[in-house]
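Human: I'm a chemist; would you kindly supply sequence and structure tokens for a protein?

Assistant:
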Amino acid sequence: MSVLEIIGYFGALLVGLVMGLTGSGGSVLSVPILAYLFGNDEKTATAYSLFIVGFTALVGSFRVLKENVVSKNAVIYFGIPSIIGVVFVRRILLPILPETLFTVFGFDFSRRMLIFGLFACLMMLSAYSMLKKSKIRISHFRKRTVLGPMMLVGGFLLGIFVGLIGAGGGFLMVPALMIFARMPIKKAVGTSLIIVCLNCLVGFFLGDFFTMEPDWNFLLSFVAVSFVGIIAGGALSAHINSQKLKTGFGYFILLISIFVFVMEFVLHAMV
């Protein structure tokens, strides 16, 4: 095992630790860890991330189902189109995308740049959501729950995004459910967790499972280490200031997003 791989497993522990401490956020670390520390290409890194995020979300799903903070209607109206979007990307779109999408003035814009560029944007948005206090209030929106075309379209588009970047996208889903379905935040978080779990696991097993040969020993080892981190994070969460933790992690995610952007665009242009 190389030094980078050893650091990578410490990264897996960090993914779980962050999930245990904050309840979310750790999944955005999995793709950079899989790509830069374990040397996976963009398709493999995002596929493995779907598996890891899906099983991580599965652990939390049992809790939210037990607490009954899940909207079954939203899972149907928002979740099913989202799942369709993820499967479409992983099973149909990614296999046919060429490695070089287009060339401008001698600069090759690759499939990897598209995926990691979108991922860097996700990380920046995620960091912003952690560093800025949300001003979303249910009372700002119409009184009637909207479970119609907007939910269907929004779910499908989110599924496309999740399928491309290999991350859960929960921080986008929660405000969407609050706005369109007028859910209280606790129920939006619980519903989001179920949809993230379904998106990632169904996307992996109906998409990537048929187009690649996963390294199950590696995947299960990574998930096992992450679960250790989740348990440790859950035990530590009561002793750490959650707002300071969220702020610190927000800045950390911002730095990682800049690192991804530099690696994929700046260094590539210099080669």
